[in-house]
Model the fold of this input.
Amino acid sequence: MATALLWFCNWSTLAACAALKLPQLGALLAARSARGLSLPSLLLELAGFLVFLRYQWYYEYPLLTYLEYPMLIAQDLILLLCVFHFNGNVYRALPYIALFVSSWFILTLQKWVIDLAMFLYVLWSCWL
Done:
């Protein structure tokens, strides 16, 4: 019984996260405008997801404990591209994407870097 409940919780979380940003993306595409969407909050959310995913990957947690984060990151990247597209210049997203891709590698150059990033992520999450 406990195994079935755990299985259900894992897969229902994955299903919910797979569709989490779809209403926001649909509204953005329907309005054909990024008005009302905060770029700093989107970037902060993306950074938090990236730190958490990299931390879980680095310490070799089981895949099902963090599998929803790649889906959330992909959806946030699509939102980021839409924001820049509707603001008139999608190429302005490239520095942000390059920063996030390079952060993937920079976070694990030293063990203390990923630990500090995770500490700051948790601290910042609790503070907000």
User: Anything to note?
Assistant: The CA atoms of residues 64 and 109 lie 25 Å apart.
